[in-house]
Amino acid sequence: MVHDEAIWFAAYEFGWGYRAFELSADVAQRELGAVDTSARQLTLAFELGRQRIAGAIAPMMSGYEGKRISLRAGDLRS
After folding, report:
1. Residue 49: what pLDDT?
2. Ranges of residues in the chain whose predicted pLDDT is under 50
3. Given this model, what pLDDT does residue 78 score?
4. 29 occurs within a structural domain
5. Of 15, 19, 42, 69, which is least packed with CB atoms within 10 Å of its CB?
6. What domain of life does the UniProt record list for this protein's source (predicted)?
7. Which residues neighbour 70 within 8 Å (Cβ) at sequence distance 6 or greater?
8. Is the dihedral of CA 34, 38, 44, 48 positive or negative?
C-alpha cells in the first residue's frame, strides 16, 4: 500500500509471525529504480524488487517491538 510517498507492507514468516515494514519513496527510487514518487512507480518498483526486499527483511527476525520497520538503502544492498 502506498502511503505518504512510502510503501507500507507486511511480511509473514513461520516462527515470528507478521511484521510491518516501510520502504520510503527515496529508497525505492535510489535502490529499486522507481522513476518518480507516484503510486504507480512505487508499486512497480516494489513488485520488481520483491526478491531484494525479501532478502533484506529476512535477517530482521529478532528484536521486533511491534512497530513498523523502515528499510534503508543499505538494507537492500546487502
Report:
1. 96
2. none
3. 61
4. yes
5. 15
6. Bacteria
7. 21, 22, 23, 24
8. positive
Residue 1 domain-assigned (yes or no): no
Of the candidates 44, 48, 8, 42, the one whose C-alpha atom is nearest the C-alpha of residue 26 is 42
Residues in the chain: 78
Residue 36 and residue 65: Cα distance in Å, rounded? 32
Does residue 73 form part of some domain? yes
Q: How many CA atoms lie within 13 A of 58 on its CB side?
A: 9
Whether 21 is covered by a domain: the verdict is yes
pTM confidence score: 0.86
Whole-angstrom distance between the N-terminal and C-terminal Cα of the chain? 24
Residue 17 Rama label (left phi>0; alpha psi -120 to 50; beta): left
Total domains in the fold of the chain? 1
